[in-house]
Design goal:
The protein is 84% helix and 0% strand. By secondary structure, it is mostly helical. The protein has one domain (9-234).
Length: 235
């Protein structure tokens, strides 16, 4: 007889989890404001940041959906295990593609961030007033710290992704040969591990998204400070 694995955050994936993802996306859209950014570097960072956010949010939602299908099979809750297995195969492939797209976009954003912070540092160094240099440096360091939080979150997500996708694909191949109740019983320890790894993956992704809400805004808006500072100095 099958025992239900510890699904944790993946229970009722198609309801409140999806709502959570959509709410997060709407929150980011409403709070990340780049209109005040004047430099080309900041504007480019804005564009790449938006693309990256959308790619990561989409991948996150797909991961939750994929694990939900997987859990319906190993917990013997799927009405049609054969159909659920086919759905899992497609969902796994889609998860791989979306994460590859998100990783590629994030690398692009990371490189653009390096360019932005380099040019921003030069602008801060160009201030004639020591007081303005201190103010500008504080803003720059804050944006750099939040940007690093996103990088650390992506690194953690990447580290969790590899064992997650390997286990998912291995178990998918196992299911292709045997979907019997006894086979699902045998997968229970692996199901526990996969759900735990998936939780780590989503936690890393959430670490990326939360600082992005404020960090990229700081980077984009703060990069416009030299022009604003000149007005202060003139006053």
């Amino acid at each position: 007889m099958n025992t239900t694995p510890n699904l944790g955050i993946f229970q009722n994936t198609n309801s409140h989890a999806l709502i959570s993802v959509l709410s997060m996306a709407l929150l980011l859209c409403s709070n990340v404001v780049f209109g005040q950014a004047g430099s080309k570097d900041a504007q480019k960072f804005q564009e790449v940041g938006e693309e990256t956010r959308e790619a990561i949010v989409e991948a996150r939602g797909q991961f939750e959906s994929t694990v939900g299908i997987y859990n319906s099979i190993v917990s013997a809750e799927a009405d049609n295990p054969q159909k659920a297995y086919k759905d899992l195969t497609k969902a796994t492939e889609k998860s791989e593609k979306l994460w590859a797209d998100a990783s590629k976009s994030f690398d692009k954003m990371r490189k653009q961030g390096d360019k932005l912070f380099s040019s921003w540092q030069k602008d801060v160094d160009a201030f004639g007033s020591e007081q303005m240099k201190q103010v500008g440096m504080q803003r720059l360091e804050l944006a750099q710290t939040r940007n690093q939080q996103m990088i650390d979150g992506m690194d953690a997500a990447e580290e969790a992704y590899q064992p997650f996708i390997i286990s998912l694909k291995d178990q998918g191949m196992f299911m292709a040969r045997d979907l019997s109740p006894a086979a699902m019983d045998a997968l229970q320890p692996l199901a526990e591990e996969l759900n735990a790894t998936a939780a780590e993956l989503l936690a890393g992704i959430d670490t990326i998204l939360k600082p992005e809400e404020e960090g990229i805004e700081e980077a984009a808006e703060g990069a416009a400070e030299p022009a604003e500072a000149e007005e202060i100095e003139a006053g």
